[in-house]
Design a protein that fits this description.
By secondary structure, the chain is mostly helical. Helices cover 73% and strands 0% of the residues.
């Protein structure tokens, strides 16, 4: 017996179990493809470039220093107001969000191809400049994609939609990373980067299919320098006027430090343990993909049954524990079973966190300043971890070894868990909500 029709559920979706329907609605599905494209710029700089440099024999401290080349992802809030207010000549008639998606998407593809065309053995400095360029453009693509995602999702879809976006991000990151490794082993890194540039396309197609977001609340364009200055600072001022805003920002800043430190050094661990490119590709895409999919669905169920506050807290604990798995892998050595377990659990925990934590950060935004406020929140969420990775991670690994390093990342994750617990008890987790989490289109 087929499921009864439900308002807002049309066609084939009505025949699916009720628990599955939220994942196949148009906006959450679109969020999957947006996430896929959002990941490619970061993936080409982080894991893929790290592996590429390591295979050229460049020292660990120099490789991890390349983490500083994508600090643009942490400072993207500085130019995010442009995405909210500046209209692109010739494209503005298609809408603010769509015009920026198409324009920046093309730039991302060009920057990826350019980075792939360079030879690290000839000039590491030139590669660094190209990575910085891709970082800035990729971060801008993130700004537009995140704003578009939040504005096409209704408040009740934020949990599932954020999870599907995380699913797409991991799929794009692992897929482009694995594709780069496989193609590079056979045809060279230039061909690998060119092929991976196509991962920027799905978001551009989504903008064609879904149209301009109906929930968007555009602010009037500034007509003078004074108005432009006010418009630039308005998103931050609005957020800081909320009760407990500084505590919320402190949580956002520290909750991912351990997770970021661990994830941005994984390829160094795999290289140290002598895993082949094909093994890395199989476990990142195969085991990691299945585990992430399971985590997304579990996270969606947790979000629906436990509510935002409890589900966020549980996911923070699980993500902290996942770092311990890589310490165990480092201690075990080259073990396919150990690699499957560590990557599987990390992806499972990240899938849950992708639903709960990302939904919370999305709900914090005011729909008038979606691009700017989410850029600020998402940048703060990883800036400390990325800075520490680029400045100290390589040296710490060389000094204390991989086992102790990953144990340290586990301990570093605990203060964020404790601070969120305080936010829940004090009520700050409730009063920090923005209109993205309350207003309907």
């Amino acid at each position: 017996m087929s499921a009864p029709a439900v308002p807002g559920v049309q066609g084939w979706r009505a025949a699916l179990p009720a628990a599955v329907r939220p994942y196949v609605e148009s906006a959450p599905l679109a969020a999957t493809f947006l996430g896929m494209s959002s990941s490619v710029g970061f993936a080409m700089i982080a894991a893929t470039l790290t592996t590429r440099l390591a295979q050229y024999g460049i020292r660990k401290s120099a490789v991890t220093a390349f983490a500083l080349t994508f600090l643009a992802f942490n400072f993207k809030f500085l130019w995010a107001p442009l995405v909210d207010t500046v209209r692109l000549p010739g494209l503005a008639r298609f809408g603010q969000r769509r015009s920026w998606l198409w324009f920046v998407g093309v730039l991302v593809m060009g920057a990826i191809v350019y980075l792939g065309s360079l030879d690290p053995s000839t000039s590491v400095t030139q590669v660094a400049y190209a990575a910085i360029l891709l970082g800035v453009i990729g971060a801008t693509y993130d700004i537009v994609i995140d704003a578009y995602r939040i504005e096409i999702l209704e408040p009740h879809q934020l949990g599932v939609g954020s999870g599907m976006h995380q699913y797409g991000w991991r799929l794009g990151s692992a897929g482009s990373g694995a594709l780069a490794l496989v193609i590079a082993a056979r045809y060279g890194w230039g061909a690998a980067y060119t092929a991976c540039a196509l991962f920027a396309v799905p978001a551009m197609v989504v903008a064609v299919v879904m149209g301009e977001p109906s929930r968007r609340r555009p602010a009037p364009p500034p007509k003078s320098v004074g108005q432009a200055v006010v418009a630039y600072f308005s998103p931050l001022v609005e957020f800081l006027q909320r009760r407990g805003a500084l505590v919320v920002l402190a949580f956002v800043l520290i909750h991912k430090i351990g997770d970021t430190l661990a994830n941005l050094t994984l390829r160094l661990l795999f290289e140290e343990l002598k895993f082949s490119n094909d093994e890395i590709a199989f476990y990142d895409v195969g085991v990691g993909f299945v585990a992430l999919l399971a985590g997304v669905f579990v996270g969606g169920a947790m979000y629906a049954s436990m509510g935002m506050k409890r589900s966020v807290f549980v996911s923070l604990v699980l993500m902290a524990i996942s770092n311990f798995g890589f310490a165990a892998l480092a201690a075990a050595g080259h073990s396919n079973l150990g690699m499957a377990g560590a990557i599987g659990f990390e992806n499972f925990a990240s899938g849950i966190g992708g639903v709960t934590v990302v939904a919370y950060l999305s709900a914090l935004c005011n729909l008038r300043f979606t691009a700017t406020q989410y850029a600020l929140l998402s940048a703060l969420a990883s800036i400390a971890g990325r800075f520490l990775t680029g400045t100290t991670a390589g040296s710490l690994i060389e000094a204390m070894g991989f086992v102790n390093f990953y144990l340290l990342t586990t301990i570093i994750a605990l203060p964020g868990v404790a601070l969120y617990g305080y936010m829940v008890r004090s009520g700050l987790a409730d009063v920090s909500m923005g209109t993205a989490g309350t207003d309907h289109g």
